[in-house]
Fold these 4 entries.
Entry 1:
Amino acid sequence: MKPPIIVVYEPGDVNIFQSIEDAERYLESPDVDQLIAYDSEGRFLDLKVPESKGLSFLGIGVIPVTKVTISSAESQPAHIEDLQEILHGLLQHLEVSMEWLEKATLDDLLVKSIEQIGFTR
């Protein structure tokens, strides 16, 4: 796994974390099923939540918020094009020039995305 870590909630809703630890600290367990994560090389990442018992307060179920752990789901980056498409869409939404976007590599897209939205902390 090579940081930065890119986490996608839905198209256009992207967070970029400087480290795995930053991402694990920020992410919340109830959201994990809605997230897709990649490392900077296009490796798909596995987001896991440790098993925990559901809590109840006055008979109302409460969803516990527990730590999320991140690990690599693949040894070789197999989702480079997916990550490029996500970052391309983000930058297009932020009105980065189409001419620049058409020529950009994955590294270019990642650097520009960090310049535009910064790291999530």
Entry 2:
Amino acid sequence: MNRPDLTEENFADVYNTLVGRYDKTVTLLQLPALRIAGSSSPAQQSGASGQGRLYLDKNEDTDLNIHSPSARSNRKDAMTSDTVAGVLALIPDMGIDLHFWGLGGHANLFGGTLLASSARFYSSLKNISAADDEGQSANASKTATFERRADDWLLQYNLAGHELVQNGRQILTSLIAEQIAKHEYLNVKQQIANSQELKPIPAR
């Protein structure tokens, strides 16, 4: 780049020219407002008491504080029901037999078989609910990951923009320092030339 010599008269023009070439405005992207759950973060984390310092967004809160505890509770209910069903199965069955000339039927009116079947049916319902909560929890967690990733991309973009601005300022400073050094060099060179032109005073 061709630059004129820096003098007191043209300093302002040269500086404005350098600023115009290197001091470019960098457009920064605006980060979307983070949708924080509750006041800032939840007061409960998967059934454990928390301090409200996680700063979760809506999907992270849904994953951690809604679906995960619900799935855990349903799994516990299902395991309890299965345990009770095993005990109920030990109760003897009481039934009724209906026969006429060798033909008829048998029906269980009450007993461990019916009670255990009911408990296992309840357990199956709880397992289905738990699986549904786990699926919704996984979807919410994945969505939250994508949201955080997009926020990180915007942050990296803006950091790069700030770096470009800083680099532009450093270039301006370097160019000005270069012109000042050149000006000083020319002054010293002129002083040397002037000193050489001085005639020595003859001795008397």
Entry 3:
Amino acid sequence: MGLPSPLVEWCDAVIARLVEFSLGPVDIVSANTLEELGLALIKSSTSHFIVASRVPSDGLRNVLTEHNTRYVVALDDPRAAFQNLVTKHGLDTIAATRAVAGSCASLLNYTMTEDALVLRAEREGRDPLGTAQTIARHFALDVAPADIAQIVVGLADISLTSAPSDIDTWWSDLEEPKRVIAVSALDGYVEHFAGRGLGKLIWSRDLFFVGDDPRQPADRPIDITGRIRNLVFGPYIILPPGSWVATVVLGFSREAAEVSYAIEFIAARLEERPLTLVPTGPLTNVALLLALHPDARPERIVLMGGAIAEGNVTPAAEFNIWCDPEAAARVFASGIDVTMIGLDVTHKALFGDRHKAQLEGEVGEMVRELLAFYGSFHKEAYGWDGSPIHDAVAVAHVLRPDLVRTAERGVVVDCGGELSRGRTYVDLWGRAGWEANCHVAVDVDADAFLELLVERISALG
């Protein structure tokens, strides 16, 4: 096993020839894990085989150590391994970097056991015959010196190592972006294998992927807006053993840096005068506002979300709270005057055919067409002859407080388990004794609300 360099390829070939001379026919199989090793045993047609491993797992090492199994670890300058993969095996810069970095990390613990014969290119690479003899003794293979010499001569076309000057020249000629990617990820191991301790490892963005597409490198700006998803993943490189602290450096494009985000806009407005916020979606931005601008506190928050005893995205949770329950919990615990307009109330005010017929103007016609679609959905999903206009109830309550009856109660947001995540627990009857932190909507004057909504939509022309 060893780094994917000329030395390990030479060792594989030498060990195979030595075993053939001593024991008979042999297979060389690639295996990094116990599972791969077991599969190789099943497929092998010979009595003897050699395991060639480039990224050996901890499980494989544990078994080797437990059974005192001897093995060879071939170490080289990681840069030579990278050069070998690019020039001889045709890998691109990213794939070669991943392969060598993963191999380096995997091999660190393999050099520390008594059963390991550790070969280093800068030392054993100068004496092929002596190295082959050392390998034969390590595995107790009965091969005559003359036969070992013959094996070495037969493998003369396989170079054990590259001259340091050749490696330096090749690397200096490598294109700058490619060299930076590889050097950043491998330099720490170059230091380690030179006996100077493990250095810093830096994984550039080119080693990662966008979203969940392994064909799309994260080498361009990423749009972080939209649905909740994995923005970046990777880089599929094993870390060395031990505890690690990762520093993630994120940059913003010029376009993003110049954008005035919602929380900055709201904070600036709050400095000018008191405001009532009416959030009608997930409360992420409101929670960020409270966290980043603790002094910019709205006078009141009237939110559409939650419920006393209903859910729409799950049996327990309403969508807006479920999307970001941690943000909702921060808002409810903020001490600000909060009113929750939940599903229990919005479901009582259904915009039906009678109300659609009263709509006037072009805007009214557009709303009528929209409600035809939503009406079909609500009829099929809930059996209703109409559609709730959830967000409008929250806005209407700010304009006409008399439209919604509220009760001041304690509300707790469930940020935990899968089934109940996002639920708003309301101590409606005071049995839990929670301190009141919210005006919870408990009823709505549906006729008056719908009359107001028709009037305002029609007034838009």
Entry 4:
Amino acid sequence: MKQKNIGFAVSLLLALASGLAGQQEFYITLKEGVPATSLALPNFATRSSSVRAKTAAAEIRQVLAADLGYSRIFQLLPEKYYDYIRPIDPSNIFFKDWESIQASILFVGEISEAAGDDVVFEGKLYDVKGGRFIFGKRYQYVMSNLDETVLREIASLTRGRYFRAESNEALARIYAEIDQLERTEVSSVERVDYHEAGLRFLLPAALLLLLEFLLAHTLLRSAL
């Protein structure tokens, strides 16, 4: 169960980026030196009282939080902040509550169970300051068997590496290992355009020299 939830949550990050198509446009401007956008990620709601659904909600949220933190685009609010406001109600969002704890973006997740071993996840993003819904997606993860032999062969042929996380701890170790991989140096050609600023001083200097020459051979010469 843990393995399925982790794979589902990691793929969620990529799917959310494409889920904006067909929805209203939303932009997050990223500039060097600008602090990360504060994001609230409260505990996911479960539409089932089963232990399986609650465990899935906790594990998916934990992996998603690790991925968002690793992106360095968002700054997750500390867990203790959620104690200062009322519990999240997916059907009735109190934006003033989330604004009071300095959240810019709110991510609301819901977990439910489908037939068989399927897990249904619904995620929604809200603009807290604007008090509006940005977009949402619903996913149903169906259990599948990975052919690790083929995946390892692909990684070997492309001079890459194959990673598989079967727990939250393993995922954290993979991220740490990726950070330590050798980085490729990228060379670039720099072009510098020079602007001659001395011309504005050269012309007056030439005129002064000419004036000095004329005076030396006319008025000043006669005075001497």
